[in-house]
Amino acid sequence: MTRYAIVDIETTGSHAKGHGITEIAVVISDGSRELERWETLIDPGLPIPMHITKLTGITDEMLEAAPTFEAVADELEEWLNDCIFVAHNVGFDYAFIRGHFETMGRVWKSKKLCTVRLARKLLPGHGSYSLGRICGDLGIKNDARHRAMGDCAATVELFHQMMAKERASELVNNMLRHGERESWLPQHVAASDFEALPTSPGVYRFLNQKGTPIYIGMSHNVRHRVRTHFNGTMKSARRQAFLRDIYHIEGEATGSVLMARLLEDELIRKHWPIHNRAQKSIPVRTAIVPYMDQRGFSRFHLQRQRHVKHAIRWFRREDDARAWLHRCADEFNLAPELLGLGSDGHGGTVPDEARDAHNASMQKLMNHAQHREHWAIVDRGREEDEQAVVLMEGEHVKGWAFTNETVEHFEEIELLVDPKASSATSDAIVQHAMQEFELGALKLRIVHPPSD
Fold first, then answer.
1. How many CB atoms are closer than 10 A to CB 326?
2. Which among 44, 26, 248 has a CA at the least distance from the CA of 148?
C-alpha cells in the first residue's frame, strides 16, 4: 500500500533561509482515507513578525513551551519515512523541512507530490488554485485557515477528491516517476515546455505570467542547462520568487555556441530581464595598446579597460593577451620585453642599433593584427543546409544572420546581414571565439573582402 504524508507548516516568513517553522501538521493517507495524524507547535528560535501573527493567530507566548525542531526531528522523520511527501505548493513546505534537517547536519529527502499541479491537471477550469479558492469552489470546509492542521486537513480532503478521479493514479505515477519533469519544474510550468527545448546549442527564456522574459540564458545543451536551474532546494527569498514567477519556458537552437552567445546578448539588451544581472555591465578587458618610448622604440603595454579605444587587440583575460603576444614575439622575431612581457620592464637589453628593424617588425605585427578591417565569420547554422554569418568591422560586430544560401564571397555576406546595435559584449564574444579559432579549438571559416 502506498502511503502519503500530507503536510502543512506555518512559518515566520516566506522563505526557508533566515526563517523558522512555528507549526507542523502531518496526516497519513492511503490515497482515499485518513490513517493517522500528528501536529505540534515549534519554537522557531526567533520572534514572530506581527503580520505573521495576524495571519496565523500564532503568538510568541503560544510557543514559549513548544519544542524546537531539533527536539521533534526524529519523530517527524518517522512520520515521513516510507511516505510520499504531499503538500499544496509542495516546494515551500519541502524546502523548509529539508532546510531544517540540513541545519542539523542531517540529510533528508523524499519523493514529493504537489496538489497544486495535480489539481491543474485533474480539475481544470478554476480561476485560482490557491488552497482557499480551490477548496471554496469544491465546498471543502476549513475552520482553521492558516493553521497547520486546518490547512492540512483541507488539503487531505482535496487530495482524496482528486485521487477518486479516473485518471488520478496514472497522473500521480507519472509525476512520481524517477526524473519526471513534474517533480522539479516550477509550479506553473508545463512539462511540455521542457520537452520542447533543444538538446543542442541555443538560447532559452523564462517568461512570467504576462509572457515577459524574466531571465534569458544560453548553453551548448539548452535542455540540460535549464534543468540545472531547478536543482537543489529553494532556500533564499530571491530564488523562491524567481521560480514562482516562471510560467513558461521557451528555447531555440542556434547551431553553434558562438551564435547562441550573440543571440543571448541581443535578447538581453532588448528585454533587460530582471534576473539577468551580469550582462547589464560592460565587461572589463585586457587591451594591448601601442606607444613609443623615449628611445624611439615602438612598444606595447597591457591595460585593463572597458573600451577598446587605441587598442590593436583586446582579450577577456590577461593570460590570453600574454599568450597572443608570446606567439607574436616568436612569429615576428621581437624582444618580449618590448611587448610588455619582459623582466626588466624597460627594454634596456635591446641595443639602439636594433631600433629600425624592431620598429619595422612591430609595424608588420600591427598591420597583421588590424588587417581584418572588414571581414566576416561563417559558422554552422541551425540545420544541415543552413549557415550562420557574422559581419565584422575591425573588432566590432556589425550584424549577423542565418541563411540557406551558399555563402562564398564577402559581398554576399554584406547583402545578407542587417546591422545590429553595437555591443561591447558581442565584440568580446567574437574576440573570444577568434582566440579559440587561432588555437585550433573552434572550426570557423573567415571571409575577407576582395583585395584592391
1. 13
2. 26
Annotated catalytic residue, options 146, 160, 188, 229: 146
* 452 in any annotated domain: no
Whether 88 and 168 map to the same domain: the answer is: yes
Q: Which three cell numbers stand for residue 302?
A: 597591457
Is 172 inside a domain boundary? Answer: yes
Q: Is residue 228 part of a domain?
A: yes
Cα Rg, the chain, nearest whole Å: 31
Q: Which of 183, 209, 242 is the last residue of a domain?
A: 183
For 380-393, write each residue's pLDDT tens digit.
Answer: 999 988 999 999 98
- Model confidence, pTM: 0.57
- Summarize pLDDT for 22-72 with one digit per residue, the tens: 999 999 999 999 999 999 999 999 999 999 999 999 999 999 999 999 999
The enclosing domain of 253 has a CATH number of: 3.40.1440.10
Contacts of 9 (CB under 8 A, 6+ apart): 21, 22, 23, 24, 25, 93, 96, 97, 148
CA 14 to chain centre: 22
Q: Is 310 a catalytic residue?
A: no
Domain with 426, as residue range(s), is 374-447
| Domain co-membership, 10 together with 117 | yes
Question: What is the rounded distance in angstroms from the CA atom of residue 186 to the CA atom of residue 201?
Answer: 23
d(CA 177, CA 159): 19
Indicate whether 16 belongs to any domain.
Answer: yes
DSSP state of 443: -
CATH of the domain at 91: 3.30.420.10
Backbone angles phi, psi at 87, to 5 degrees: -160, 160
Are 235 and 314 in a shared domain?
Answer: no
Q: Which residues, in sequence order, are bridge partners of residue 288? A: 302, 313
